[in-house]
UniProtKB/TrEMBL annotation:
InterPro entries: AMMECR1, AMMECR1_dom_sf, AMMECR1_domain, AMMECR1_N. Gene3D superfamilies: Hypothetical protein ph0010, domain 1 (3.30.700.20), Hypothetical protein ph0010, domain 2 (3.30.1490.150). This is AMMECR1 domain-containing protein. It holds the Pfam family AMMECR1. It comes from the Eukaryota. Residues 1-199 form the AMMECR1 domain.
Amino acid sequence: MVALVEHCVYCFDVLRRHFDPQQEAEPEFKNGSQAYPLFVTWKVQPAHPTPDDEELRLRGCIGNFNAMPLQSGLEEYALTSALRDRRFAPITSKEVPWLTCAVSLLTDFTLGSDYLDWEIGKHGIWIEFRNEHGKRKTATYLPEIAAEQGWSKVETIDSLLRKGGYRGHITETLRASIKLTRYQSSKCALSYDDYLAYCESRDTRPHITRIATCV
């Protein structure tokens, strides 16, 4: 399965319906019987950017490694990542025009032989480890994260340990104890401006049920 523009459009529709219940949200993609692990990511461009604000800022990224039907999975995680990512305040309606949505469908899960058994830019990684109190913890980064940040494999692993809540000194022994699963993803991203253009095109197709009123 390939991530499609229509998947991102549906996430925008769902988010807009959250702020305006009169909006409709019906997918234009085939849901079928297949299910996929998936993530929805929201990023924002500052309304009045400065030269230091060229990069989009993360506003939420949450998904599920359990396979989910596309429609219900995207509907759930479009809102969960926008409103319930504990790292950020919930996205507000005023931010919507500045958002970019990305949908990642995860595939090809393989257990790594050690914590270095993956490729930067190709694989996402999911790690399991024990924290300093012996409690099992997990954390993941999607395939693009390490490359975007310019991290080495070790830097990526150490960042993941911190993301997963490890607060002690990171040693090679700790890294070697990690259980790592690598995976790949198909990703599609869509800005709000492109979403509006899609809506305008959609509204001129009389044979397609109108999904949202785009202004």
